[in-house]
Design goal:
CATH class of the largest domain: Mainly Alpha
Strand content: 5-15%
CATH superfamily of the largest domain: Tetratricopeptide repeat domain
Number of domains: 2
Shape: globular
Strand order of the largest sheet: 1-2-3
Helix content: 40-55%
Distance between the termini: 49 Å
Length: about 375
């Protein structure tokens, strides 16, 4: 009875309350439609892209949806580290489901170092029932029917019960000192605002590229040249380290190259662009991974860095229009993979390029 009265109060809130749920809510809802195949063909790639756009706009539900997709491997291989990153983004701003999921990861040591104190703290926060949580429910359901609101409220209640069980299971593994520390951390915890970003800063040395693995003599550039040569490559020495000859196709300019010195490697999403659109706060290892990711590298002609510089797709497109289809999809896949933001103008340019794809592949891959 009390629950139904609370729901009636929430439904009585003015309609404007539902509009305050934050920017990106429309993108998040569209993403859910594509993920579930409701009213549109099911498309996990498009769902991730829309969730990403919403998350970069500050929508916490979208952050949780991205975390869930990476955790469960929905349409992609599971990536628990990426899941933890998205859950943390929402958890630190007070999202209860994100706090619960992050707590579970700390309890298991998946995607983050195992830490029972942090696990208990996040789960404790997730189970807290306070006026702020009720207010959030009201904002989410003020424009819904009573039956819809009651159904979702029951789901929220079920999740809270599960969170209590998970928290208590973690508590049984803790010492009294650890438990007291976790409880004190939860008591004094406050939501953390998103740190400000310096959009104009880019230091190339923080993005080490053409790296070598321990014990190997070939760097990323040599490996790319070997991988994409249309014929066996020639090396500078018998150690087979530095590539000097081969046969490569430059799709941007439709030309064939036979000397490695004439080959350039293009970062499809430039490093400076990535830095300004979310990568500036990455740890050095993630920056290194991005700079050497084969998915973000394209064999082309020497001088591409001077020609393209750090421009997004709204300002630079491959001169050869036949390359637009692959270039557009690769851009979109990379920003989704790494959780980068993208401007409306660049998004429009990507749509223009992918529209050139043959009909049979004219859908996100």
């Amino acid at each position: 009875m009390i629950i139904r009265i609370l729901l009636l109060c929430m439904l009585a809130l003015p309609a404007q309350a539902g509009e305050r749920e934050g920017t990106g809510s429309a993108e998040n809802r569209r993403g859910k439609m594509y993920e579930e195949g409701k009213s549109v063909p099911q498309n996990y790639k498009e769902a991730r892209y829309l969730y990403l756009r919403a998350a970069r706009m500050g929508n916490l539900d979208a952050c949780v949806n991205l975390g869930r997709i990476y955790l469960n491997g929905i349409g992609i291989p599971p990536d628990v580290g990426n899941a933890a990153r998205w859950f943390r983004k929402a958890a630190e701003q007070g999202h209860n489901e994100a706090q619960l999921q992050l707590g579970k990861l700390y309890a298991k040591g998946e995607g983050v170092p195992k830490d029972l104190v942090l696990a208990h703290m996040w789960m404790n926060l997730a189970t807290a029932e306070n006026l702020q949580q009720a207010s959030q429910l009201g904002k989410k359901f003020s424009t819904k029917s009573f039956d819809e609101a009651e159904k979702v409220a029951q789901q929220e209640s079920k999740m809270a019960s599960g969170a209590v069980s998970d928290r208590d299971a973690v508590a049984k593994q803790m010492t009294p000192e650890q438990l007291a520390q976790a409880q004190e951390m939860a008591r004094t915890w406050k939501p953390r605002p998103q740190p400000p970003r310096e959009r104009n800063s880019f230091t190339p040395t923080e993005w080490p590229h053409w790296s070598k693995e321990a014990g190997e003599c070939q760097n990323t550039r040599d490996k790319m040249l070997i991988r994409h040569s249309l014929e066996p490559v020639g090396f500078a020495t018998e150690q087979n380290c530095k590539v000097v000859r081969g046969k490569w196709l430059d799709p941007y300019h439709r030309r064939t190259i036979t000397q490695a010195a004439d080959v350039g490697l293009d970062h499809v999403v430039p490093l400076a662009y990535a830095s300004r659109h979310g990568g500036d706060l990455w740890p050095r290892e993630l920056k290194k991974q991005f700079a050497n990711d084969f998915d973000n590298l394209q064999v082309t002609s020497q001088g591409i860095a001077r020609e393209k510089q750090e421009q997004g797709p709204n300002r630079w497109k491959p001169p050869e229009k036949e390359a637009w289809c692959d270039y557009g999809y690769r851009w979109r896949n990379i920003v989704t993979k790494y959780g980068l933001s993208i401007s409306q103008q660049d998004d429009g340019a990507l749509q223009e390029m992918t529209a050139t794809c043959p009909e049979r592949i004219n859908a996100p891959r």
